[in-house]
Amino acid sequence: MRLSRRLIAWSLYDWASSPVPTLHATFIFSVFFTTAVMPEGGTAAWAWMTSASALAVAISAPLLGRFADGRGAVRTCLAITTAIGALATAGLWFVEPDISFAMLALGLSAVSIFAMEISFVFYNAMLPSVARENEFGRASGFAWGLGYAGAIVALAIVLLLFVLPDHPAFGVSTEGAGHIRITMCFAALWLCLFAIPVFVLVPAPPAARSSVPFLAGLKDSLRIAMAIPGMPRFLLARMLFADGLVTLFAFGGIYAATVFGFSQTMVLVFGIILNITAGIGAALGGVADDRFGAIRVMRGCLVALAALGLMAILAPGEAVFWAAGAALGLFIGPLQSSARAYVARRAPPDQRASLFGLMMFSGKATSFIGPLLYGVLVTITGSDRAGMAIVIVLMLAGWMVMPRR
Question: Which residue of 3, 98, 173, 174 sits 20 to 30 Å from the alpha carbon of 55, by its own alpha carbon?
């Protein structure tokens, strides 16, 4: 695969956007909100907000994808959602460590999460503009790996410059948690800066304007998607394994802390290692995707994730858990990357944003089920090991439903 200017420019959007959820929803602002802004009930409020955002994404993604295809506005929609995501994220600077700022934090966070998730409907639809069909796997894997790398680099920078030092860089004060709030401005600036190349160097997908009424066009998109061989089974399989990944990401750190006594620092190191291996896996998986096909790669990843998940559950000590956890990333990356390549290959040129909207729907519509079942199993058994078993069940269910080719 030749790394053309267009491919690099397109891939940089993964690098640009990944620090926003990493710094905002995973490692820094979410912790700040639940410990300093709303220490009483903050965790529940954050959970409700993220669930509502996921539901909004599930409902909106197919509609906005159809709109972008019908108006030939894929790149315009990407620019709008990127701008909204950057502004909402930067606006979190105004959230101070006081309960009176809780609603502002939740509102801006919901907008940020929604905009960044939806932006990938349009970004993914541009993949055929930067690579040939026989290179979709490697192109998608390269971009996905670059995204993991961007998250790690951005996290390291904000930790070294703002979060860890007694005297943060650039004269930022620790009063009012300024050193924490500034990380949101950093994430927004990073997004805007590194997103520029995709708008300058990557051509907009060919316009596919249609005189068909919007709702009729949406119905046609659904009909076309269901008629593509293997697509209905893929979308169902993705719904299942996406729930498994949501559960793994939501409770992996909690599991490590409660079962193996990981400190906050150890959880952070574990997360960084997982991102590194996921980036490596995405890059290597892209090569395998182009050679063996997306379905074989995804089916292989699902089996490996189930086996490694079982190892993590049965691990007698930290060493085995560290090994299993690090290895998980090698298969998480290519599983997600190959899903993007699969849809890009199967979608008709005038339906790409619509199909990626349906893929987004399949990943969000039932994203509450995995965490819910995790909580039910932990409540019934009193064991986090039992709760984590739901991840294995969902991965194997996805493998069973996944089309064979």
Answer: 98
